[in-house]
Amino acid sequence: MNAPTPIGPPEVLAALGVPFRLREHPDVVSPVEVCTALGVPLERTVKTLAFVTSEDRLLLAALPGHARLRYSALARAAGIRRGDLSPADAGRLARAGMQPGGVCPVSADRAVVVVFDESVGSLGRVHCGSGRPDSSIEIEAAKLMAAVPAAMTASIADLPADEPA
Which residue in 66, 79, 104, 162 is a FRET match for 116, CA 20 to 30 A apart? Predict the structure, then answer.
């Protein structure tokens, strides 16, 4: 007998009563492809990178789409060693109701550790993963962050030099 499929980010947001819009697009994985499909600039996206800790906990890092992750800062914020971070594979993502190319900071898995970059809350209306590579969630960044009450906020991103901090 198969285990039930975990619920995905859109269902979690809907259950919480958070307003969002699901935007369908071709099955794409890279942030640039998503932006092209949706007609939005990379600066209006939140990318979520998924890692697994040595205890098999999922660690999600949410940062502006055009920023680079500071791995050491993420590990510090999560209270683990940098060497204990490994990229999450498709099987680990599936247990949290997500697929590669659709990672979202919102999950029904209460054991997931989520760290938002401190700049995300001021981004306004953004697009982020929906749990699937063929759609994205359009949502106010502050509402996205509020939908993950146990999330931490830290300076984990390096923004391009021409961006205000």
Answer: 162
